[in-house]
Write a structure and sequence with these properties.
Blueprint lengths: L6 H48 L4 H10 L1 H45 L1
Helix pairs in contact: 1-2, 1-3
Length: 115
Amino acid sequence: MGTYSGQGDYAELMELVDTLQDTVQHLRESGTQLAYREMDYRKALRLRILDERNNKTPVTIISDICRGDPHIAELKRARDCAEAIYKADLESINAIKTVIRVIENQIDREWSTTK
């Protein structure tokens, strides 16, 4: 049998591992951003709800009124966008890990045929 010629596979694998590490770092950042956006939204919503309760607004409509407030809606939008980025980072990590497994299996097959 010939010699193993899959150095390109190995180089691709190492590149994917680097990409995975970068994406994990980005996940940390996007996760932190999500946590801050969630905190801002919940704090503002809480204060708005307390204001409406002090104004004797009927409890049955407080939630709708507060969530319809432009400031609260903007905070929720920012939170939702941060969540979307966080979830996209997770999916990217899973996709990279899948490709890494495929390349590792390919390398293993190549090595097993060269023995």
